[in-house]
Amino acid sequence: MAQLRQLRAGDLRDALALSISANWNQTEEDWARLLRLTPERCFCVEEDGRAVASAMAIAYGKSLAWIGMVLTLPEYRGRGFASQLMRQCLDSLTVPTVKLDATDLGRPVYERLGFVEEYVVERWRGTLPEGPKRSYPIDWDLDRHAFGADRSELLKELGPARPGRVASFVGPVVCQTQDEARERILGAGVSGLTLWDIPENNSQATALARELGFQPFRKLWRMRKGAPIAERPDWVYALAGFEFG
């Protein structure tokens, strides 16, 4: 019988199998990071002795929360697990606004729960050249205004880039000029095949991605439930990832 419960450290192998089944880029360490950041809001459905579906929510201060990692193994789809997990995530939150990045498969589920589309976010793929890793101070106030909420605890965990299961990932990168963004991305300390998520409405970021030889290959829809928040997507040159915003 299916049981909805909190995701635990002992479920990390099952969690990784979930993201692999969707051909996502997360590593086991990415899942462990989620558990460190928001252990009380990581949920799964257990059946047949393993986690077969998942969802997580992370609160950014008192104004905004993010839902991500909404996954179900293919052989368990069509049984309402995603909707159950989404409701559990929403019930665990007390903030006025909740956001997520929706795939084609998930979008109808979220619309039925009251989410509306804000704008498109794109995943770009390319190759970054080798170069020295540089350290840049985080402008906490700038990031809060660009993103629309305080995500300082997340930024302390992430850094500007991280390894992935099939490719490196660059982001988050928040700055006010294309020149500064170029410097930070080339100094993020990753090389080779790299993924880069960009708000489609940031034309300076998409132009920079093309300049560096990247091409878009996937689109998701940024969706919101609740009140709109003030943000500056034109300062967001690289997202933190679909699971974080």
Structural account:
- By secondary structure, this protein is α+β, with helices and mostly antiparallel strands.
- It is 29% helix and 32% strand.
- It has two domains: 116 residues, 3-Layer(aba) Sandwich (Aminopeptidase), CATH 3.40.630.30; 119 residues, Aminopeptidase (3-Layer(aba) Sandwich), CATH 3.40.630.
- It has eight helices and twelve strands.
- The strands form two sheets. It has a ten-stranded mixed β-sheet with strand order 1-2-3-4-5-11-6-10-8-7, with helices on both faces.
- Strand 4, helix 3 and strand 5 form a beta-alpha-beta unit.
Features:
two-stranded antiparallel ribbon, Aminopeptidase, alpha+beta, 12 strands, 8 helices, ten-stranded mixed beta sheet, 245 residues
Could you give a short description of this structure?
This protein is of the alpha+beta class. The chain has eight helices and twelve strands. It has two domains: 3-118, 3-Layer(aba) Sandwich (Aminopeptidase), CATH 3.40.630; 120-238, Aminopeptidase.
